[in-house]
Amino acid sequence: MQTEEQKQEGISVEAEKRIKKISTIIMIVILVLGILVTTDILLVSKAGIGPFLAINTKTYNDGGTKEYYGLGYKVIKYNQKVGRRDTVLGTWSLKYDITPKTFSISDLSYSINNDNNNYIGEFIRLTGTITKKSNKNNIIILEFSDNEKGKYNLTVKANIISKNIKKLNKDAPISLIGTVKNYEYDSKTLIIVNAFAE
What we know:
By secondary structure, this protein is of the alpha+beta class. The chain has 2 domains: 42 residues; 97 residues, CATH 2.40.50.110. The protein has 3 helices and 10 strands. A 5-stranded mixed beta barrel has the order 6-7-8-10-9. A 4-stranded antiparallel beta sheet has the order 1-2-3-4, with helices on one face. The termini are far apart.
C-alpha cells in the first residue's frame, strides 16, 4: 500500500513499469512495421516482385493493370495488352499514366547527353530504323551515329514481346514502345524491355 507521501510524488512504480512496457511494445510494433514496409518497397523497386503488404484496390480493363495501396506508398503494376508492362512505385498521389514520352532516336541521343537524363524506368515511344535484329532472342537494334566524332552515338536494344518479329525487316522504319531498363555509359547503349513494335 502506498503512503500519502508516495501518492503526492507522482506516478507509482507499478504505473511507471506499465507505461514503459506499453511504450516498448508500441516501439517494437512500429519498428517491425517499418522493416516490413521497407522490405516490401525494396522488393518492388529492386526485384520487381510484390507488393506483399499493399492492398489491390483497382484492376483496369486494359489487360490487367493493378493498383495497390500500402502504408504510405502506392504501386501500379502495368499489364496492358499492347503497351506498358512495368511496375511503378510512388506516393498515394501516383497517377495511372499510359502515355509514353515520344522521341526519335536522334532526339533521345541528344537528350541523354545534353540533359544528363538516361530515362531509366521511363515508358517511351521511340522511332528509328532497324539496323539489326535477332529472331531467336526477339531483339531489335536501332543505331544513331552523329557527325561530332561519336559524342552523340546511341545504340538501342529493344526486347520485343511479340513473337512475330520475323515480319519486321532490317533497314525498315519502326516505332517502338517500351520501358527503359538500363543505359550503359561505356557502350552508349540503351536497353528497352517489354517493347512492342507499332
